[in-house]
Amino acid sequence: MTSVIVVLKGLVEFAGLLLIAQGVVRAISFGRHEQNPIYLALRFLTRPVVQAVRSITPAVIIDRHVPAVALFLLFCCWVGLILLKAWQFGAVG
After folding, report:
1. What is the mean pLDDT of the segment spanning 28-56?
2. Could you count the other beta carbons within 10 Å of the beta carbon of residue 34?
3. CB of 64 within 8 A of CB of 43?
4. What percent of the chain has pLDDT above 90?
5. CA neighbours within 13 Å on the CB side: how many for 57?
6. Helix, strand, coil share (%) of the chain residues, nearest 5
7. CA–CA dist 74, 93 (Å, integer)
8. Do 36 and 25 form a contact (C-beta atoms < 8 A)?
9. Is 15 within 8 Å of 46 (Cβ atoms)?
10. Is the model's pLDDT at 38 over the cut of 90?
11. What is the pLDDT of residue 93?
């Protein structure tokens, strides 16, 4: 069970870092991010996470903010997995 938690935590960390990198590349592209091949590759890699979050968020949240919501949800999952791992080893509770 511990190895499953560790793998899931690693996947969540990887997806979160990809979303952060996508935001950084967008910020330093000065409006030309749609022509940037690095941004396009990062958008391709983060598309499954962003689409999953889009499917569970209400329509009030605009598409532009969905990656930020995805990053927040990944952070919550990451903290939850850390607590689950600590609980499994008896460090919590």
Report:
1. 94
2. 10
3. no
4. 86
5. 20
6. 80, 0, 20
7. 24
8. yes
9. yes
10. yes
11. 57
Residue 10, amino acid? G
Residue 2 has pLDDT above 90, yes or no: no
Residue with tokens 């391709």: 44
Q: Which two tokens stand for residue 78?
A: 């990451």
And the tokens for 65? Answer: 């903010």
Using CA atoms, how far apart are residues 28 and 15, in angstroms rounded to an integer? 20
Tell me the two tokens of residue 73: 């949800």
- Spatial contact of 49 and 70, defined as CB atoms under 8 Å apart: yes
Amino acid, res. 63:
D
Tokens found for residue 14:
């990887």
Structure tokens at 48: 């499954």
